[in-house]
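Form 7-S
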Amino acid sequence: MARHVILGTAGHVDHGKTALVKALTGIDTDRLKEEKERGISIELGFANLSLPGDLEIGIVDVPGHERFVKTMLAGVGGIDLALLVIAADEGIMPQTKEHLDICQLLQIRKGLVAITKSDLVDAEWLQMVRGEVEVFLKGTFLEGSPIIPCSAVTREGLPELTSALAALASSLEGRPAAGIFRLPIDRAFTIKGFGTVVTGTLLSGCIQVGEEVQIYPGSLATRVRRLQVHNRSVEQACAGQRTAVNLPNIELAQVSRGDVLSLPGQLRPTSLLDIRFIHLKSSPRPLKVRSRVRFHSGTAEVLARIIPLEAQEIAPGEETFLQIRLEAPVAPLPGDRFVLRSYSPAITIGGGQILDCDPARHRRGHPQTLEALRRMWEGDPGQRLEEVLRSSASRPLSLSALVPAIGMDRETLTTHLQRLILEGRIILLKEKEEGYLHRESYRRIREQVLHQLALFHQQEPLKEGMMQEELRGKLSPPPGMALFQKVLNDLKEDGEIAIERAKVRLASHRPQIGAAEEEIKSALEKAYQEAGFQPPSLGEVVGNRSKDQRRATDLIRLLIDEGTLMVIKGDLLFHRESYEKAKGMLLDLLRQRPSISVSEFKDLLGISRKWAIPLLEHFDEIKLTRRVGNERTLYG
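Output:
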């Protein structure tokens, strides 16, 4: 099976990148009329080179003019090798430096240098240029890499260049076929009879003909009609291949460079990112809060504002954490590299790595935020996963939500989740959809529940307990109902709380009343007891105690919680003895006859409609009786 490697050119305008690619492959990557007329590359060009050892090299040829650096950035995001091209007659130039900076920031793994146009200079000059290049490359990923003089005209040095390229390509580890399928789109066009075609370097995962796909950051859904790799039709394309995808039912105007092709639900469009940023030493000035910049990731360029999280400004040469607020959404994954260019003039000022694609808005200098970002930056995949779950607080995250949040495929993600569960670092909630929660978040909710109950009992010692929904609302942030119920059930099983009639209390709590409260409570109970079937309203009872209204109300609730008083309707309460007596008298009568009217019920208890009707309606509600016209019969 062929190994696929992507090579990207880099270097100053008119240093012979396109001529060199044509000399190596026979393919002229300048396809536009304007490119032919002006003699410079304006757009990305593509070629392929087959080498011994079953190596297939996909070549992305980028423009070198300073006006087209953003186009260059759209081409180098997915390359494995960099071919830095420096003309022997001009040497190191501004875009030589900028392109090398960009390759550094994108962490391209390996590369080599071609000193082109060697036929235009003598041996002594060529040796001097070579020495300058060696000094220029010190401290970069190209230090110690092959430096090969060559000429596209005479073809001198091309065999050595090809051999060095083959050796480097063979030494690279192939991109894993596993992972989330992502194809950043660098070109879109139509072919008559086929419709819209998009191309790009396949970053990760694989895609097959017939699969459903989505165009991000939008929500356009379609399927793969045809696939091509290096102009050959295939049934499947995998990471590391230059790929063309034919998309049916998509208009050309609906897709553009900067979009990303992936599977439905795999990516999460965002306009807010947490990043680790390296500010280039060559940057002309410090970056301040809300500086406007050009953000480049994949093939996308978006204007943005930066928010330094550790200091008021970032001096050239510093490395720090930023939050970046984009003016249009993008669809990256954590771990992706990016480049920042200044707004005006547009020059490369830095870059780094995306840490979080779905962050909250942060306050600058917040220690917990900076510590969390440091763990994200320094941790392995399992630690980064744990950090994402930790930062979700009381919001359990499903497997589907974690895929774009972590940037792992489901199989790899599940393996990490199972390990964290076994280590006791996270828990799995099984409800309508499985959700994962960090153990610290679960423990924090438990502690909040116990704290709020203790506070409630301290403030309301006469009350038996706290309503569940009131308790949930006191938690910060309030957890979902499924998680809240799990915490309550676990606390109940552990013997720390009791749940009675939708009220929650600490297991150790009992309503505490002093001698004065006990006296008022007894008086209240006696008032209802003596009133029999004609109890006073709550307002009447409490109103008679103008000095102790709050205390009387609390004691009434306590009598209700204890079951001494029965709530019939609204604030109409019956003493349990009177209630049970009325209930018994009604049952005795209905066992002797089929029904009873309101008037007969009034006479039976010796009361007016004021008490009779609410009492009968209550018996209907508890399904003791059934109303039939103006009569009541036994239910069932």
